[in-house]
Specification:
Elements (H helix, E strand, L loop, with lengths): L1 H4 L18 H8 L13 H6 L9 E4 L2 H11 L5 E4 L12 H23 L7
Helix pairs in contact: 2-5
């Protein structure tokens, strides 16, 4: 989202749990598009709140897994925050060997990009 729409849209990434390190395959397939994630660290919803990021201040929360959707529903209950669920495939258990894994991760990446474009339009048209 940041890569496509820049600073015109405030975006924050969070998950159900904090794994600290971003998966190396994720870094690799995003790098293919010029997105630098090697220094990015994941954070949980709890950590976001400790850093002053309150979910009720976001217009939209996008969940990519059933577990994150369920937690986001619980955390945003009573807020005027839209919750969208994008059932993106989980590439972590798909494929054997580096090339097969990269194919799965690219597919998941491309699913996310397609959802971004479907919901917020083609970034080339908004510039």
């Amino acid at each position: 989202m940041k890569r496509f729409f820049g600073t015109g849209t405030y975006v924050q990434s969070a998950g159900v749990k904090n794994d600290f390190e971003i998966d190396g395959f994720t870094v690799a397939v995003c790098e293919e598009l010029g997105v630098e994630l090697s220094r990015h660290r994941s954070r949980s919803f709890d950590e976001m709140e400790k850093m002053g990021e309150v979910l009720s201040s976001f217009d939209v929360v996008v969940a990519l897994s059933p577990m994150s959707r369920d937690l986001a529903e619980e955390l945003t209950r009573g807020f005027h925050t839209d919750l969208e669920y994008w059932p993106i495939m989980d590439p972590t258990a798909i494929g054997e060997g580096r090339e097969a894994k990269l194919v799965a991760y690219r597919e998941a990446r491309d699913q996310i990009i397609a959802q971004i474009k479907a919901h917020w339009g083609d970034p080339r048209e908004s510039r």
